[in-house]
Amino acid sequence: MGKQFLTPVVLPADPTQPLEAVTKQYVDARAGSEVEISASDPIGTSPGAELWFDTDDPSGGVVNPAFDGTPQPVGAVGAPGTSLNWARGDHVHAASVYTSFNGNPSPVAVVAAPGSSTSWARGDHVHPFAPGLLGRRLNDNGQLNVKQRSGGSVALASNGVFLADRHSVSNSGVGASVLNYSALVPFGAFPPAGRPRPGSIQYIQMTTAEAAAALSTSDYLQWAHNFEGQNLQHLNWGTPQAQPLTVSFDVYSSIATTYIAELYRIEATTRSISVLLPVPAGFTTQVVTFPGDQTTVITNDNVARLQFAVNLVGGSTFTSGGILQTSWANTVTGNRWVGISNTFNATLNAIFGLTNLQVEVGTVPTPYEVRPYTDELRACQRYFERQTTAGSGSYIAFAAGAAYVTTGAQCLLNYIPKRATPTFAIPAVGQFAVLSASSTVLPATTVNFLYIGEQRAVVQVLVASGLVAGGATLMIPNANNTAYIDIISEI
Fold it and tell me: Do 278 and 156 sit in the same domain of this protein?
């Protein structure tokens, strides 16, 4: 049975052995102060290096020295990594970043070249389009895959000739040349290293050479692509923030020569800027950067307000000024193409081909932006659309309607919404007919387009006789599957 002390027990000294009793006085005297358990380990570590405590482990236990520095305050952002500093309970951690970066945050709407960066970015920054995403390329049909007018070749005897959609070629008095479209590249290795293979190329070939000395003053040969003003408002031209444009494209030239690349603004007062374009023989990738025009704004409408052109030949009208216009200014015609070689026209069978055209904002060319064919086709059909029933049989209709007299029918023709009210072209009236309600095919004698809108029109088809007023009708090919209707709203 245990014994009970009835009076305070006074110990003679502080404890020195394990399991010795201690007094309240001994404990109170050490409350709130550091207790040094031991300054050395059981096997002789140097005093002060570590603190040791007893443990069942024969080698003892170790505690790292306490840190006596200033705690990190609330919101403090230190360098990421390992730290022995104490931190208050309400401190915060910085986000992990690359420890090598010491730059400034990217501000709002800064557009940098796509790629990797260790820069901070504010929460309201924006990303530029990365390669492969839609929206960087401003031009349509850069690989010339859309060719609604058919392939093959056409003589370049006038201005504004198209084979591939949206690419206009003009020959004003320069010898005789042919515009060709080839689904297979006939000129050897293509494309240049690192460039996408388009599978097609459009090219000009001189079939009758004309020496430079024989050029008339106003002769020229030009390849051009036009842009609506309303599609260029984000360039901020006419302000100090005017954005530059970079144009990249693949060229085949059968001869080494110098052409002129040009941006031409089509406003009340035209403005332009040109650069020399020296090209070697063979395939090359050409890159040209033009500064933004800070002087005048681009009219916000559906009219052609900007043209990119490669000029192959130019008479003295375009070269007589003697100084190439290499900065934005009101157009001086005699300075537009100074330095052009005019050797293309003088070389029999000389060839100039172009594909992979990309016009984009900025000063750095990015990889060619490939778009689905259906998207390219729809974009091109805003300016030109060919409706055909080729290969579909005679009774496939262009339009449906009703007879209003025995010799005439009116049918509704629908089409992709156009840039502006279109015009129409057909190969020959005799290629069309009206299918009557009694399934009689009546050859057309006249075709007129009435009540024309941006996405539909009424086609009046006249025949010799045989219709029933009020009877249903179809406008069809007249046993000729090559019939077509062109709906045109080009710029």
Answer: yes
Over 70: is that where the pLDDT of 225 sits?
Answer: yes
**Does residue 303 share a domain with residue 175?**
yes
Domain CATH code at residue 189: 2.60.120.260
Domain that holds residue 21: 1-66
Residue 92: pLDDT above 90? no
Burial pattern 337-353, b for ≥16 Cβ within 10 A else e, equals bbbbbbbbbbeeebbbb
Total domain count for the chain?
3
Joined tokens for residue 219: 């002769």
Strands (E), 13-63: 51-53, 61-63
DSSP 213: G
**Residue 182 maps to a domain:** yes
- Rg of the chain, C-alpha, whole Å: 41
Tell me which DSSP letter residue 106 carries.
B
> Which pLDDT value is given to residue 194?
75
Amino acid letter, residue 59: S
What three-state secondary structure class fits 301? coil
Residue 250 included in any domain: yes
Q: pLDDT tens digits for 427-447?
A: 999 999 999 999 999 999 999
Tell me how far CA of residue 172 lies from CA of 158, 223, 259, in angstroms: 6, 12, 16
Retrieve residue 309's tokens.
Answer: 């052109």
Structure tokens of 294? 């800070």
Judged against a pLDDT cut of 60, whether residue 96 lies above it is answered with no
Question: Who wins on pLDDT, 48 or 463?
Answer: 463
Residues 6+ apart with CB under 8 A from 99: 79, 80, 81
Q: Are 215 and 174 in contact (CB under 8 A)?
A: yes
Q: How does DSSP classify residue 245?
A: E
Say yes or no: 361 and 399 in one domain: no
Helix (H, G, I), strand (E, B) or coil at 478: coil
Please state, in angstroms and rounded to a whole number, the distance separating the CA atoms of residues 132 and 114.
11
At CA 197, angle to CA 196 and CA 203, rounded to 5? 115
Instruction: Round to whole Å and give the CA distance between 261 and 219.
Output: 17
Q: Do 158 and 279 fall into the same domain?
A: yes
Closest CA to 386 of 347, 405, 412, 413: 413
Whether the bond between 191 and the residue before it is cis, its omega within 30 degrees of 0, is yes
Q: How confident is the model at residue 202 (pLDDT cuts 50, 70, 90)?
A: confident
Strand boundaries in 269-426, DSSP class E: 271-279, 282-290, 304-314, 329-330, 351-361, 384-388, 399-405, 408-414, 423-425
What does the pLDDT read at residue 304?
98
The domain boundary, picked from 380, 399, 422, lies at: 380
SS3 445: strand
DSSP string, 182-203: ESS--SSS-S-TT----S-EEE
